[in-house]
Specification:
By secondary structure, this protein is α/β, with parallel strands linked by helices. 35% of the residues lie in helices and 12% in strands. The protein has one domain. Strands 1-2-3 form a 3-stranded parallel beta sheet. Helix 2 links the parallel strand 1 and strand 2 (82-87).
Length: 123
Amino acid sequence: MTQRPRQLPPVLQNLPFPVIGSPLFIISNPKLVIAQCKAGVVGAMPALNARPASQLDEWLAEITEALAAHDRANPDHKAAPFAINQIVHKSNDRLEHDIELCAKYKVPIIITSLGAREDVNQA
């Protein structure tokens, strides 16, 4: 029996480099994510780096606007998608708020850590 070759999900198929920038606690921020994406790497940051929680809305707006502007100016060299890391442990009282913001901004990739929750997968 032969196995079909695995394919990357559509969001990752056009990357020039098969690389995801690590979502570094405290260090990752919109400027780093934007720079990574413009360089062809999936830029990533933890949602919890935005403090207070309301700052995540501002940061996601900054990232999506900057990447959209880059793509308009560079149609032949579009930015890579970005990712937000969500801590799904029950101690994260911001999870629902942060997931709603990710849905609002259509974050292309969600990385989860410290647990598994089916409801997050469905969002």
